[in-house]
Specification:
Shape: globular
Order of helices and strands: HHHHHH
Strand content: under 5%
Helix content: 55-70%
Distance between the termini: 30 Å
Structural class: mainly alpha
Oligomer: single chain
Length: about 100
């Protein structure tokens, strides 16, 4: 695993919500290198901070088909009490599904 990805995954568990948000955003921008971060981003969808949950959803959407395992968690995030998180989850689902080949 790339050292920057590892560092950002660790930051998703930081006590500071701003650090967690920044880590989720950075992982989404790393694309292919960040595929190993999908489980941590799925966990971040349950973060106590709405900003972190929203950034995690955005990051998963940026990962596209590499985030296929996040489909169930993103589906649940569509029911988040915060509308910006719900919107990010809807967008992410569309991006992951649009680029995910159908099951045979």
């Amino acid at each position: 695993m790339h050292s920057e990805v590892r560092r950002r995954i660790e930051q998703l568990a930081d006590d500071d919500g701003a650090v967690r948000q920044q880590a989720a955003a950075a992982l989404g921008e790393m694309a292919e290198k960040a595929a190993a971060a999908v489980p941590a981003l799925i966990k971040a969808l349950g973060d106590r901070s709405a900003g972190v949950r929203r950034r995690a959803a955005v990051a998963l959407g940026q990962l596209g088909p590499r985030a296929r395992e996040a489909l169930p968690a993103l589906t649940r995030a569509q029911n988040d009490p915060i509308h910006t998180v719900r919107g990010a989850a809807w967008d992410a689902l569309a991006k992951v599904r649009a680029s995910t080949p159908p099951d045979d």
